[in-house]
Each structure stands twice: as structure tokens, then as C-alpha cells.
Write a structure and sequence with these properties.
Blueprint (H helix, E strand, L loop, with lengths): L1 H13 L1 H13 L8 H35 L3 H24 L7 H20 L16 H6 L5
């Protein structure tokens, strides 16, 4: 039995794709006794983290472009920023539809994304004399973030 556990762990480290295929086959065959449970649990936890990270990343991009559109007086860039805002909003809407439980994580994700977006925009534009508030001054709820053009 110890040899079987070692070989499963080796397969995970040696060839992840083969490990996933073997794991799926065992699950379909209900061969639960021979699953590499330790790595399977780790991978499933990783999927949840990945969903959260994607939401944070899209919110960071959305917020960075909202900040630019609201505070940077560069009309030649407005169209590009607005296109990115629309795209991120569509992608976030789809992600929330596919994974509704992400809504429970929204406030935390917005806070983390705000911090990152603000830092990015400050790095890029503060040297040009632009000033940015330390706090998001507008509504943070899902509906507002995905629908309101805050610059109008």
C-alpha cells in the first residue's frame, strides 16, 4: 500500500496531465481507494483560489481604467479606456453568472483590487501631476460597479 501511495505522488510531480487523466478515470470508476487524495484536495482548493484571483484581476483592471477615465484628462485615450471598462464588466458579469458564490467575496475583492489599481495608476500618472484619492468615493456594490459610468 505504501508503494502505491508513493507512486501516485510521484506521478503528480512527474506528469501532471497524466495524473489528472488517471484521477478522472478513478473517479468515474468510483475507485476511491486508489485516489491521490492529498493532491486532489490541493487541486480543488486551487480551483477556488483561481476563481477568486480571476475576479480580483478583472476588478483591478476595471478599477484602473475607471480611475483613468475619471481623473486623467487625455480625451484621445477615453475610447480605449471605455472599451476596456466594458470588456471587464462583461467578463465579470459572466464570471458571477457562472460562479454565483463569488458574490460573497465581492467586498474583499473590490478592496484588494482597489489597492492594486490605485498603485498602478499612481505609478503611471503621478509624475504628470495627477492626484488620486486614497479611497473609492463611489458605490462599491456589484450593480453599480458593473453599470454606472462614474465619469459622467
Amino acid at each position: 500500500m505504501t508503494q502505491a501511495v508513493v507512486s501516485r505522488k510521484d506521478l503528480y510531480d512527474r506528469d501532471f496531465l497524466e495524473w489528472t487523466q488517471e484521477t478522472v478515470a478513478k473517479l468515474r470508476n468510483r475507485d476511491f481507494d486508489h485516489l491521490d487524495l492529498e493532491n486532489l484536495i490541493e487541486e480543488i482548493e486551487g480551483l477556488g483560489r483561481s476563481e477568486k484571483q480571476e475576479l480580483e484581476s478583472r476588478l483591478e483592471t476595471l478599477l484602473a481604467h475607471l480611475i483613468k477615465r475619471m481623473y486623467i484628462n487625455m480625451p484621445e485615450c477615453f475610447n480605449g479606456w471605455e472599451n476596456t471598462i466594458r470588456e471587464q464588466r462583461r467578463r465579470i458579469t459572466l464570471r458571477l453568472k457562472q460562479t454565483p458564490s463569488l458574490k460573497n467575496y465581492w467586498d474583499e475583492a473590490v478592496n484588494d483590487a482597489w489597492f492594486l489599481a490605485l498603485g498602478t495608476v499612481r505609478d503611471e500618472y503621478s509624475k504628470n501631476g495627477y492626484q488620486f484619492s486614497d479611497i473609492w468615493q463611489f458605490s462599491r456594490d456589484i450593480d453599480s460597479m458593473l453599470n454606472i459610468d462614474f465619469w459622467e
